Automatic annotation (TrEMBL):
<keyword id="KW-0175">Coiled coil</keyword>
<protein>
    <submittedName>
        <fullName>Mobilization protein</fullName>
    </submittedName>
</protein>
<feature type="coiled-coil region">
    <location>
        <begin position="3"/>
        <end position="30"/>
    </location>
</feature>
Amino acid sequence: MSRKSIEERLAQLEAQRKSLQARLSKDERARDTRRKVLLGALVLHRLEEGRESSADYLRDFIRRELPGFLTRDIDRRLFEDLIGPGKTG
C-alpha cells in the first residue's frame, strides 16, 4: 500500500475546502433570498391590509424609492401597481 505524498494530500484537502466553501456560499445565498422573500411578503401584506398610517407610509416610501432602485424595465413592470407605469428614478 502506497501512502499519498504530501502534495497529493494537500491537493485533496484544497479540493475539500473549495467544495465546502461552495456549499457555504450556496447556503448563504439561499438564506439571503429567503429573507428578501419574507420581508417582501410582509411589506405586501401591510399594503394589502390597508391600515391607514402604516400602509400610506409604505406606499409613499415605495413610490419615492423603488423607481430609482429598479434598473430593468421588466422589473419596473412588476411594480406598476405601486409606482405607476413608466416611472424612472
